[in-house]
Design goal:
The chain has about 210 residues and is α+β, with helices and mostly antiparallel strands. It has one domain (about 20-210). Helices cover about 60% and strands about 15% of the residues.
């Protein structure tokens, strides 16, 4: 059976659907804070992975100092480079991956923006309706792609420069907390058939669900 593609008008005008939540762009930080505290599978996975990357970060430093006689300050410098790259180059790459997934899902009008006061960056597809599966794909893709690239860099790049990739893995993971918070929202509402879309002009994301 072919997948039915809804438009925002289809959702709003259909009595089978009801408004579940609205997310104003300038309130994204408060929204994320609410759901990162939930004991959902998304947040459990996020924190376990984050702890593992931190252990790897510290363990790789100790291993390099003990077994390869690498200088503490030399490794620390590479970790600092990873921090700088993560909060400069990696941020736009992260959003570009979101945008590419939107294209794969069929979106036409993709826009990028930021809420600087909240240090929040986003890629949205104006008036493009996404279901649960599409939303999870959108949310998790940058985490998977960039994490795999950084792990490959750490494994295959020789010398002290490999630590930069490990640092980027850790710091990029911390930046993914907003994506995991949104998946946590879906986990909390796992019994509901949720559809979401953005009204860029109004700077609002809408979440509708089908009435039972």
């Amino acid at each position: 059976m072919a997948l039915m593609r809804y438009s925002p008008t289809d959702i709003k005008s259909n009595p089978e659907f009801e408004l579940l939540d609205v997310l104003h762009y300038d309130g994204v930080l408060n929204f994320a804070r609410k759901y990162i505290r939930k004991n959902t599978r998304s947040m459990i996975f996020f924190y376990i992975f984050l702890i593992c990357t931190l252990v790897l970060l510290v363990g790789a430093m100790i291993y390099g100092m003990v077994n390869h006689n690498r200088a503490f300050l030399g490794i620390l410098k590479q970790y600092f480079y990873g921090l700088l790259i993560s909060f400069s180059i990696i941020i736009p790459v992260h959003e570009i991956v979101h945008g590419m997934v939107y294209v794969l899902l069929g979106a036409k009008k993709i826009l990028f923006g930021a809420e600087i006061k909240q240090f929040a960056f986003y890629a949205v597809a104006d008036e493009f309706v996404t279901g649960r599966a599409g939303f999870y794909m959108l949310a998790i893709s940058p985490f998977i792609v960039i994490s795999l690239l950084n792990l490959a860099g750490f494994i295959f790049v020789r010398g002290v420069a490999s630590y930069t990739y490990l640092s980027m893995l850790f710091f990029h993971t911390t930046m993914c907390i907003g994506d995991f918070a949104l998946m946590s929202y879906y986990d909390i509402n796992k019994e509901k058939e949720i559809y979401t879309f953005d009204d860029v002009k109004s700077r609002i994301s809408y979440f509708y669900c089908r009435k039972k």
